[in-house]
Amino acid sequence: MEKALKFGIIFLLVASVFSLPKDLQELIHFILIALFGILAYNSHVEANIKGLGFYIALVILYQPFVLIPLEPIIFKVINGLVALFIVFTLLKPVTKINKVLD
Predict the structure, then answer these.
(1) How many Å from the N-terminal Cα to the C-terminal Cα in the chain?
(2) What's residue 83's pLDDT?
(3) What's the predicted TM-score (pTM) here?
């Protein structure tokens, strides 16, 4: 399930790099905070404090309620970096605790 969530996040982040209407961009941010929240909970269950902090930071970054004043090009670069990091976490070998939970 976690891999499917990460593939969904990667798809949404790559889609948000392209020019989208503001309403669709806000919808993507709502979906992303829900997906990052689920991944943060999974990290908490696995006792992965670094992952938990990372996903909470991403929830704060992508929340659509209080906009962070960044230039659109900087936000697109951040989207690309986050997508690359999520791809890296997909390619990382599965640890022993992940094998038990799956």
Answers:
(1) 9
(2) 92
(3) 0.81
